[in-house]
Amino acid sequence: QTFFFSQCEQIIQHLNHKIPGINTAELCQRIQTSGVDINIGDLAKIANTLSFLFSTAARNNLSTEELVTTLGSGVSTLPKHALQVIRHVWNEQGKAIAVSEDARNMATVGQFVDMKWKLGVAMSSDTCRSLKYPYVTVTLTVADPAGQISDKSFEMTIPQFKNFFRQFKEMASVLETV
């Protein structure tokens, strides 16, 4: 129940644009450490369902009682303690979700959270004894529209990285003019 409450709160914070997303990998590890057997895929499905639930309730301006009544009558498999947590979270924080007309019509896209990079050199491989080939590994941390945080990694040659860097400089100069 504590972890479910924590996940509901994180989703509300994400919908209020206070945090970029929900780190399901971290939450899954905390839950598994406490002795509960759950995999990250199931936890992500729960997060997506709750995100849809809360955003739909906000869009339709549902009161706490309307939300709980709808959930209680429509979803027979939802445990009573889960309904209590949803009631509490929605009652305390649900009204803060601002759903403007523009936000309703806007296409949902992911959000950039962080970027890390490192320089490496490939010394050799099973087909070539002496490579001495420099490369840059970039890891982007992104939150998808549902708020799930994930890492995307890719490698670039030095010329590709220079082009990538040039494009970032162009974006920065355009943003300065706005």
From TrEMBL:
GO terms for molecular function: NF-kappaB binding. Residues 111-178 form the COMM domain. Pfam families: COMM_domain. Coiled coil: none annotated. Transmembrane segments: none annotated. It comes from the Eukaryota. Belongs to the COMM domain-containing protein 6 family. Scaffold protein in the commander complex that is essential for endosomal recycling of transmembrane cargos; the commander complex is composed of the CCC subcomplex and the retriever subcomplex. May modulate activity of cullin-RING E3 ubiquitin ligase (CRL) complexes. Down-regulates activation of NF-kappa-B. Inhibits TNF-induced NFKB1 activation. This is COMM domain-containing protein 6.
